[in-house]
Design a protein that fits this description.
With about 375 residues, the protein is mainly alpha-helical. α1 packs antiparallel against α8. About 55% of the residues lie in helices and about 5% in strands. Bound molecules: s-citryldethia Coenzyme A. S-citryldethia Coenzyme A binds next to α15.
C-alpha cells in the first residue's frame, strides 16, 4: 500500500526539530536562561540541593520536608554497592577510562536486578534510584582501586555530595567543598533534549529498560562535543601552561579552526547561565586557595573569545568553568565527566520516566542516496 503523502524535511543534527513536549527544563538560548520546572537555575543553585532537584525533576514540583526526607532515605538505602557489584568493579582494568567503567557498571546493574524487565513506572523509578544512589560509590571506589587503595564505604548519614567526597578522599570534606559539589550537581542535573538525554529516550521508547537507557546516555555523554568537554578544557589549560601563553594559543586555535573546548553550544547563543554561576565558584575557590592562575587564564580566554567570536554566539558553556572548579576541588581530571554523569542521572531518568508515560517509538528517516536496481554479482565474477 502506497505510503500516505507526508511532508518530510532533512534536518541533519536535528537543530530545528522538536521531538515532543516536556515539563522538565526550559532553555532560552538567545537570552541565556535555564529553568527546571519554571524555577530559574540561579535560584536553584543558591537555595536548593541536589536531592531536592531530583525530587523536582521526577515529580514536577518541589517536595515537602517529609517528602524530601523520604527520597533521601530511599537513596541512602541504596548507597552500598554490595559484594557482586564491587566484585565486578575489581575486574575493571585500572587503566580503563572512567566513563567506559561507569557505562559498564551501570549496564552490569541490569544483569543483577531480577526485576530488570519489569516495565512498570514504579519499577523503572526504583531502578533510577539504584543507579543514582550507587554512581557516587562506583566512581569513588574505582578512583581508589586503580591507585591500589581500598574503597571507602558510603555513610548513610551523609547527602550525595558530601558522601561522594568522603568516599573519594577517606576524609570528611569542608562545608565549602561539599556545597560546591552539591551546587555543581544541581547545575548539571538536566538540560532538555541534549544528545545523551535523547539517547536515553530513544532507548526507552523501544520499551527497553532504565538500565539500558542510562547506559546509552553514559556512552553518549562521554564524547568531547558533549560531556567529555570538561576534561578537555582542563587539559587545554594545562597545555597552555600560563597566562602569558593564552593569547597566542587562542589566536592560533581560531586561525586553524581548532575548537576551544568549553565554548559554543547548539542552543545557547548567549552566556550559558550555568557557566556564569560556575565562574563565581571558580573565583571563590581561587580566593580561598590563593591559587588564581587557572581562574585568570580562564577569564582571559573568555575575554578573547567574546571579542573574537562573541558576535557568532560563541560563549562559555557549562563545561568551561566546571573544569577549573573541579580541579581546584582536587578531583582527578578523568573523573570530571563521570561527575557530570552522576548529576545527569537525575535528568536522564526524569525524561525516561516522562517518555515512558506517553511513549511512541522514536524512528526518524534518512534520505537514501545509494543506487537502485543493482544486479547481484557472484563472487566468481568480482
Ligand atoms: C554540553 O546540548 C546540550 O544541552 C549539551 C550540554 C548539556 O547540559 O547537556 O549543555 C552540555 O555538551 C556543552 C557543550 C560542550 N562541548 C564543547 O565545549 C565542545 C566545543 N564546542 C563545539 O564543539 C560546539 O560549540 C558544539 C558541538 C557544542 C555545538 O556545535 P554546533 O551547534 O554543531 O555548531 P557548529 O560546530 O556548527 O559551529 C558553528 C560555528 C562554526 O564556525 P563556522 O564554520 O560557521 O565559521 O561556530 C564555530 C564553528 O567553527 N564554533 C567554535 C566553537 N564552537 C563552535 N569555534 C571555536 N571554538 C568553539 N568551541
Amino acid at each position: 500500500m502506497a505510503e500516505a503523502a507526508v511532508t518530510m524535511h532533512m534536518d541533519k543534527g536535528l537543530d530545528h526539530t522538536i521531538i515532543g513536549e516536556s515539563t522538565k527544563s526550559f532553555i532560552d538560548g538567545q537570552n541565556g536562561v535555564l529553568e527546571y520546572l519554571g524555577i530559574d537555575i540561579d535560584d536553584l543553585a543558591r537555595n536548593s540541593t541536589f536531592e531536592e532537584v531530583v525530587f523536582l525533576l521526577w515529580n514536577d514540583r518541589l517536595p515537602s520536608a517529609d517528602e524530601l526526607e523520604s527520597l533521601k532515605s530511599e537513596l541512602r538505602a541504596e548507597y552500598e554497592l554490595g559484594s557482586e557489584l564491587l566484585g565486578m568493579l575489581r575486574l575493571v582494568p585500572a587503566d580503563a577510562s572512567p566513563m567506559h567503567m561507569l557505562r559498564t557498571m551501570v549496564s552490569a546493574m541490569g544483569t543483577m536486578d531480577a526485576d530488570c524487565d519489569d516495565q512498570s513506572l514504579e519499577s523503572e523509578r526504583r531502578k533510577a534510584i539504584k543507579v543514582l544512589a550507587k554512581t557516587p560509590a562506583i566512581i569513588a571506589a574505582f578512583s581508589r582501586l586503580r591507585k591500589g587503595e581500598e574503597p571507602v564505604a558510603p555513610r548513610a548519614d551523609l547527602d550525595i555530595a558530601t558522601n561522594f567526597l568522603w568516599m573519594l578522599n577517606d576524609e570528611m570534606p569542608g562545608a565549602a567543598s561539599a556545597r560546591a559539589i552539591d551546587v555543581s550537581l544541581v547545575l548539571h542535573a538536566d538540560h532538555g533534549i541534549n544528545a545523551s538525554t535523547f539517547a536515553a529516550m530513544v532507548t526507552i521508547a523501544t520499551q527497553s529498560d532504565m538500565y539500558s537507557a542510562l547506559t546509552s546516555a553514559i556512552g553518549t555523554l562521554r564524547g568531547p562535543l558533549h560531556g567529555g568537554a570538561n576534561e578537555r578544557v582542563m587539559r587545554m589549560l594545562q597545555e597552555i601552561g600560563d597566562i602569558d601563553s593564552v593569547d597566542a594559543f587562542v589566536q592560533e586555535s581560531l586561525a586553524s579552526k581548532r575548537k576551544i573546548m568549553g565554548f559554543g553550544h547548539r542552543v545557547y547563543k548567549a552566556l550559558d547561565p550555568r557557566a556564569k554561576y560556575l565562574r563565581t565558584f571558580a573565583k571563590q575557590i581561587a580566593d580561598e586557595t590563593g591559587n588564581h592562575e587557572l581562574y585568570e587564564m580562564s577569564t582571559r580566554i573568555q575575554d578573547i573569545m567574546e571579542r573574537e567570536v562573541g558576535s557568532k554566539g560563541i560563549y562559555p558553556n557549562v563545561d568551561f568553568y566546571s573544569a577549573t572548579t573541579y580541579y581546584s576541588l582536587g578531583l582527578e581530571i578523568d573523573l570530571f565527566t563521570p561527575v557530570f554523569a552522576l548529576s545527569r542521572n537525575a535528568g536522564w531518568a526524569a525524561h525516561v520516566l516522562e517518555q515512558h508515560q506517553d511513549n511512541r517509538l522514536i524512528r526518524p528517516r534518512c534520505q537514501y542516496t545509494g543506487p537502485h536496481g543493482v544486479a547481484y554479482t557472484p563472487m566468481s565474477d568480482r
